[in-house]
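Before relying on records like the one below, remember that each one covers exactly one chain. Contacts with other chains, cofactors or solvent are not represented anywhere in the record.
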Amino acid sequence: MKEIKPLTSLRALAALLVFMYHYAWLFPPARRGVDFGGEWIPLMPLWQQGQVGVSIFFVLSGFLITRIYFDKMAAGESSLRLFFVKRVARIWPLFLLFAAIEHAAALVDGRFDRSALVTLSMTQGFFEHLRYAGLPTAWSLTIEESFYVFAPLLFALLLRLTDEKNRAEEPLTFRRVLRLVVAVGGIVVVMVGLGELLVRLSVSAGADWQGFMGSRHHMLHATLFGRFPEFAIGVLTAFAHRGWNLAQLLRGWRADVLLVAIFIGIGGCMGAKTSLEADPSRYARILTYVFAYLLAGLSGGLILGLTVEGGLVHRILSWRPFVFLGKVSYGFYLVQLSVMMAPLLLVSDRMGWARMPVLLVLTAAFCSLTYLIWEVPARRFIVNRWGGHH
């Protein structure tokens, strides 16, 4: 499948949401002793829920991995070796570079300990007390790499539970949609159940060192067992893209109307979640989960709308600077809250009302450099060296 440029740009938007969550809400300039005038405060209900960017990443990952590899694996045209080599090449080089810098700084500061073996192995997401240790945003990489490991088994299960083999060119009927939804939904239930079982076994056996699978809350929020529903929405979105004639269904102005409506819906859900968090009742907590999954579902619709060419939104997000920002978004996400941000904050904090856009530009520039001089060359080297014939 050729690159769908607006989906690459969508990564930049997702990373920006997480950035604003960290910058404007979680760790605003005032917490660093900077005279913070409250820039962007009118949008604070959105920034307060900026972590939805992580959910968008997960839905998009489920979509892309399924759309690119499901039919190839079903037909035996894609080797598992090449699949895993490409996944390693995609996420490990930049992670190892940034993690090495972060842990070197910790060593100089006298904060290096044995838990660094966890954070250097990209497994911190399994440990509740180490979730934000090392590179603070890397806990989500544990979930991402867990999905990569699970994906071939997931596809094998879907081939067994559905009749989707060799049907890429056929229109998706209601019966096939129902069968896919039931199959994927069943796998979601099994995954959550396995997570609950592992939590109980870990706690009862006293194996919950540093909170390893130590609580239901952590399992649901920081492991693949609990976050698989977002990937599952991406998987179902991939089958919808594969089997529906979206160019016909969303021709002309329809795609733009759909996308604008979805953007408004996502903003509304984010605002609603912010309002609900002030209510401690059980009813409010349940509604928070409902809105979280609704946001993931809307992200799936957003992905489908962005695949349709010709609309204004598609053209805007196909603009080369936006696409490039999407390509460097992995570094932009990973560098947040790390020691590497210190010199960038030192400069931007002195820029008054312009401090936030200046920090955005500086961070994007830094990540662009690491993308061009490290991430891309390392990725090519790994694939060429260990990918075999491809």
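The chain has 17 helices and no strands.
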